[in-house]
Design goal:
Elements: E1 5-15, E2 20-30, H1 37-48, E3 53-65, E4 83-87, E5 106-111, H2 113-116, E6 128-132, E7 140-142, E8 165-171, E9 178-179, H3 181-184, E10 193-197, E11 216-217, H4 219-228, E12 232-235, H5 252-259, E13 264-266, E14 277-282, E15 293-295, E16 299-303
Parallel strand pairs: 8-10, 9-11, 10-12, 12-13
Antiparallel strand pairs: 1-2, 1-3, 4-16, 5-6, 7-13, 7-15, 8-14, 14-16
């Protein structure tokens, strides 16, 4: 495996049109252990998308052996592998809890190996499993029919809203409850799968997962995503809306996004393994008529 390194450094930026920017302890993926201050400054400017930079002064630089996190300068993943697949779904297990208080799936056999032997030639046997579950189990997709009686169901959402979408990850600072319009402002979301990385998936399967402080998307932010033309919105929290008692049962994010035909994927996991952008996202359910939600195998393809 090739060694992956990141640089930790302080940077002071001066802009040609006036003003400046200073960072301390910034960490950035680098292509190799040997990197000049000039090359590091160029990577830094590209990573942040800074314009009209006059000068970047690098100080306190150290090189750390650490896996790449991804960015505009250096792609995440082992160099030279071409592409990798990133799993973004929770495993569905017998009796698991997705939403506290809601029933978990029951998984068993409809036909066992032993019972099947009577139907086939000696040495030939099969198992057919059976699952009984509610549609909102594990990592699942919400379609417009989940919120609106006349909305498109699982059969009506086109594949170009679900598969091979260019993706962008919105990193939500730890302790943030409400993802608002301002937090989304730096991101280009048109035609993209917008994935909100809150870190709350660490509590999946525990009582804390359903706590009132679970992160969510505000109604105002949902309107911004709809107006900007997002293709899909996902979150690694228990709900894209505020589920606390103070919210009073209002669901503005669901209402706005699904009214605009924008599918929602809830209960994602593993978003920390994705770069900020430059990946393709897929979350496709079966084509079942009359259902508005269903589990998906969500994943991303990260390439060169």
């Amino acid at each position: 495996m090739s060694e992956q390194c990141r640089a930790q450094f302080d940077a002071e930026v001066s802009f040609a049109n006036g003003g400046g920017l200073r960072t301390e302890g910034f960490r950035l993926d680098i292509p190799g252990r040997e990197i000049t201050d000039e090359d590091l400054a160029a990577l830094f400017v590209r990573h942040l998308g800074l314009l009209m930079v006059a000068e970047v002064r690098i100080s306190a630089k150290t090189i750390i052996e650490e896996p790449h996190k991804g960015g505009r300068g250096v792609a995440a993943g082992e160099p030279g592998t071409g592409r990798r697949l990133v799993e973004l779904s929770h495993v569905i297990r017998d009796g698991m809890t997705t939403l506290p208080g809601w029933p978990g799936p029951q998984i068993g056999d409809w036909l066992t190996f032993a019972a099947s032997r009577a139907n086939y030639a000696p040495g030939t046997e099969f198992r057919v499993a059976r699952i009984d579950m509610i549609a909102n189990t594990g990592t699942y997709l919400d379609t417009p029919a989940h919120r609106w009686a006349d909305g498109e169901d699982l059969t009506g959402v086109p594949l170009d809203r679900l598969a091979d979408l260019p993706g962008v990850v919105v990193r939500v600072p730890a302790g943030t409850r409400a993802v608002d319009r301002l937090m989304l402002a730096p991101y280009e979301v048109a035609g993209r799968a917008v994935l909100l990385h809150t870190g709350w998936s660490a509590h999946f399967g525990t009582e804390r997962y359903g706590a009132p402080e679970a992160p969510h998307l505000t109604g105002d932010a949902a309107e911004a995503l709809a107006d900007a033309g997002a293709a899909l919105v996902g979150i690694d929290s228990i709900n894209i809306d505020d589920m606390s008692p103070a919210a009073g049962g209002v669901r503005p994010a669901h209402s706005t996004l699904l009214a605009a035909g924008i599918p929602i994927v809830e209960h994602l996991t593993g978003l920390d393994a994705l770069p900020p952008s430059g990946f393709r996202f897929t979350a496709v359910p079966p084509r079942i008529a009359g259902m508005g939600t269903f589990p998906v195998r969500a994943f991303a393809v990260v390439g060169d």
